[in-house]
Amino acid sequence: xxxxxxxxxxxxxxxxxxxxxxxxxxxxxxxxxxxxxxxxxxxxxxxxxxxxxxxxxxxxxxxxxxxxxxxxxxxxxxxxxxxxxxxxxxxxxxxxxxxxxxxxxxxxxxxxxxxxxxxxxxxxxxxxxxxxxxxxxxxxxxxxxxxxxxxxxxxxxxxxxxxxxxxxxxxxxxxxxxxxxxxxxxxxxxxxxxxxxxxxxxxxxxxxxxxxxxxxxxxxxxxxxxxxxxxxxxxxxxxxxxxxxxxxxxxxxxxxxxxxxxxxxxxxxxxxxxxxxxxxxxxxxxxxxxxxxxxxxxxxxxxxxxxxxxxxxxxxxxxxxxxxxxxxxxxxxx
Length: 334
Ligand code: GDD
Ligand code: MG
Known about the structure:
Helix content is 31%, strand content 25%. With 334 residues, it is α/β, with parallel strands linked by helices. It folds into 2 domains: 2-252, Alpha-Beta Complex (Spore Coat Polysaccharide Biosynthesis Protein SpsA, Chain A); 263-333, no CATH class. The strands form 3 sheets. A 5-stranded mixed beta barrel has the order 5-8-6-7-9. The protein has a 3-stranded mixed sheet with strand order 11-13-14, covered by helices on one side. β6 (149-156) and β7 (161-169) form a beta hairpin. α6 (196-206) crosses α7. The model has no long low-confidence stretch (mean pLDDT 96). Bound molecules: guanosine-5'-diphosphate-alpha-D-mannose and magnesium ion. Magnesium ion binds at residues 106, 259.
C-alpha cells in the first residue's frame, strides 16, 4: 500500500500563526508537532517510510523536508502549480503499482487515536481490495456544516460499510439541514482508499480531461508537470470524481476527527484557557489564549487571543471567521 498525504493547501484561517508561507498543515496547533508531522506519524504507525508520500506545492518543499526528514527525497512529490486535489490525487496515485492500494489523506486534520484510526482504515483497505470501489471514511455529522462533503449511505455490505447512493460536496445550508435530518448521511473525512486500477478507470470515465493530461506523466518529472499543469482544471477530487462515480463506498469512522476549520474548533478541542498559568481573567470568562506571554483580560468573555510572530489576534468567538479578512488586508498591504 502507498499512503499519499495531500499537503499543498494554502489556507490562511489561522492568522496570525498561518500565512501563505506557513499554511495550516505546518502549524503546531495541538502538540509540539505540526499537523503534517502528526499525519505522517499516524501512517508510520503501521507503514514504512518508503511507502509514505507527500504531494505538495514546490514552494513548501523545504518546510516539508524539515518536518519529515526521514522519508526518501523522492517521496516528496512537487507540484509546480497547484490545481486543487483532483490532479494531486491522480499524480499521487500514479506512484503505485497497478493493483496496489492507495490511501489519500489530508495533511491538516486532528485525529488523536492512531489505533482506532487504523481499525477503520483497515476496513476500507479490505473493502477496496474486495469490491474495486472508491472508499471514503464517513464521520457522523453533528451540525449542518456547509464546508464538507455529504455522503448518503445506501445498502450495507458489512456491519460498518455501505454502498454510497449519492455524494454532495459543500451543500447550501438548507440542503445540509435536510441531509442531517435523514440519519443516513455522513461527512466526508477527506480520507480515501482505492486500488490504483479502480481509481484510474473511474477517472478515465468521469474526469477524462485530467486523466488524459496526466496518465503518461511521471510524478517525479516536475519540469513536465510545469508544462502540463497550467492547462489542467482547478478542481477538487470531491467534485471531479466522488460526486460523479457510482462505485463509491463509505466506512463509518470510529475515531475522533476534526478538520480544525478555525480558531473556535481549536478551542473546542483544547478547552478554554481561563485557568492557564499565563492567563488572568477578571470580570469575564471563557477565553482562549495562545501566547507565550502573560495575558491579562478584564471585562471580556468568549474571546480568542492569539499571539504570532507577525501580529496579535483579538476577536469575539462569534466573529472568528472574519480572520480571513485580516489575512486578505495584510496581503494587499504586501
Ligand atoms: N498537493 C495538493 N495540491 N494538496 C492540496 C491542494 C493542491 O492543489 N489543495 C488542497 N490540498 C490539500 C490541503 O492541504 C488539505 O490537506 C487537503 O488537500 C484537503 O484540501 P482542503 O482545501 O482543506 O479541502 P476542504 O477542507 O475544503 O474539503 C475537503 O475536506 C473536507 C473534510 O475536511 C473535501 O474532501 C470535503 O468533502 C471534506 O468534507
Ligand atoms: Mg480542509
